[in-house]
Design brief:
The protein is of the alpha+beta class. About 40% of the residues lie in helices and about 20% in strands.
Amino acid sequence: MTSAEVRQSFLDFFQSKGHTIVPSSSLLPSSPNLLFTNAGMNQFVPYFLGERPAPFNRAADTQKCIRAGGKHNDLEDVGFDTYHHTFFEMLGNWSFGDYFKKEALEWSWELLTKVWGLPADRLYATVYKPVKQGDPSVFDEEAWKVWEKIFKAEGLDPQKHIKTGGKKDNFWMMGETGPCGPCSEIHMDLTPDKTGGALVNAGSPWCIEIWNDVFMQFNATEDGQFVPLKKHNVDTGMGFERVAGIMATTENFTNFTRPPSNYNADVFAPIFARISEMSGKTYGRTMPADRNKLSPQEKNDVAFRVLADHARTLSCAIADGILPGNEGRNYVLRRILRRAVMFGRRLDLAPGFFTELVTPVVQTLGPVFPELKMQEETVRKVVRSEETSFDRTLDRGLQEFERIAAKLEA
C-alpha cells in the first residue's frame, strides 16, 4: 500500500464503523498549556470534559501534530533514529460516551490483521498496571481480558503477547492536568527472527509502538487527583508514518531483513529526491549505532532525515499561522529551522536550499491538508526570510572565527 492508501484505508474503515470523518485541527492549539497541537485528541478536549456536547458520538481523522518543546519533545532524536519526528500525522478514532474498550481494541485488531494483513504473531499488546507509589491504583483488567480473548482466537499465548506497563508507558496524559486514562498500546516485532517480545518498550527500532488506544476515564486535577469522568471516552492514535514505513520496509510484510524506518514511506520520497538533486548525494538508509561516531554515509543520511522532517514541520506550522520568532512556540520553530540549516551545510548545500523543500512538502501533504496549497507562497516567503537571516549570521560567525584563528596562528 502507498502512504496515501494507508491513510485513506484507515478513514474508510472507521467510516464503515459509523464514525464521522473530521478535518485536522490547526497546529496552533486552543489549550493555553500547549506549545503546539501534539495529539489528535486536542480538539476534542471540551467533549471529553463534558464542557460541550459532541456533535457526533464517533469520529475519525488524521491530525497534524508537532512534538518539539514542552513535555513531548522529540527534536534532538530526529535524524539520529528512524522513527521520531517533530511533525507527524496521527491517525485516530474517537468515542464520546459511546463504545469503549472492547470495540476499540477489537477494531484495532481487525484493521491491522484482517484489512492490512499485519502478521498476528508479530504483534504485542500492553495494558496498564501500577508499578510505583503515585501511579493510579487500578490495574486495567478489562483491557487485559479483551486482549486475552483476541490472542487466544489467533492461537497465540496471551501470557507472551500481553505486557504490562506503569504510568510512564501505559497511562496517557495530554499535560499535567486534563482528561486522561489507562492506555493499551500495540507494538510490532520487526526482528528477522521474531525476538521482539523482549523488546517491547525497550527503545529498540526493531519493535515499535504503532497504535495507542487510550481510555479516557479520569480528569487529572491540579492537586494530583484523578477524578472519574461522567462519561467514558476512547481516544486512539496511530503513527501514520510508522505504519506506512513498516509496509514499505517489509514490502507489505514479506521481507523482515531490512532495518525498519519511517523514512522508507513514500511520503518522504519527493523531499529526499529534491535534497539529492541539490546536494549530489544519495540517501542510503543507514541507521547509526552511535551518534557520536558516524560514518560519512551515516552523516549524510542523518542530514537527509533532519531536513525532510524539519521542512514538513516548518511548512505546516507556517501554513497554520505560526511564525518563527523569539519566544515560546515561535522560538521553537526558529530553532528547528536553524537546526535544519546547520545540517544542510553538512551536505554542502547552497544558501537558500531549505526554501526549496517547501515545494515537495506541499506536493505530498497538500492533497490532505489544503491549507498548505492555499498558503504555499506565504510559507516560502517566511522560510526564505528566516533562512537568509540565519545564513548571514552564520557567515559573520565563520568570518570572525577565521579572523581569530589566523591571529592566534600568527
